[in-house]
Amino acid sequence: MRIRKLDANGDMVFGKNAQSFWINAVDGVAQLCVSRLNLIGGSWWYDTTAGMFWQPYVVGMRTAYTRDAAVKACILATQGVNGIAQYSSALNRDTRAFTLNAMISTTYSVGPLTAEINAAAGII
């Protein structure tokens, strides 16, 4: 699997030849997971089933029992992910920030997945 790297601002990295890509690496799969979580479900015209449906499962009222299952399902549906070894999450309703830390098992190895989704990004 070959995935173009993103820089700290979320922009694609160009001009570094093979160093611009994650090639068969767990970091590339983790980047795909974060990209899927940042895509609001139903907002991509090409595939309205892609992305994470934050509103009914994570952000709404009484979502304590559905939030983690929905996030895990989104991660497990990502290409290259075989399983989730560890998972923890936190939702701060005051700042509207959702933070997750996980260890994912991929086709290539086991590695960390860290994501912070917040209202400033317009996601939740």
Descriptive overview:
- With 124 residues, this protein is an alpha+beta fold.
- The chain has one domain (2-121): Nuclear Transport Factor 2, Chain: A (Roll), CATH 3.10.450.
- Helix content is 23%, strand content 30%.
- The protein contains three helices and five strands; from the N terminus they run ββαααβββ.
- The chain has helices at 26-38, 54-59, 67-76, and strands at residues 2-4, 21-23, 81-92, 97-106, 110-118.
- The protein is globular.
- The N and C termini lie far apart (30 Å).
Q: How would you write the strand order of the largest sheet?
A: 3-4-5
Mean pLDDT: 88
Give helix and strand order, one letter per element, not per position.
EEHHHEEE
Number of strands: 5
Name the beta content range.
25-35%
- Envelope shape: globular
CATH architecture: Roll
Low-confidence stretches: none
The Cα radius of gyration reads: 15 Å
Biggest sheet overview: 3 strands, antiparallel
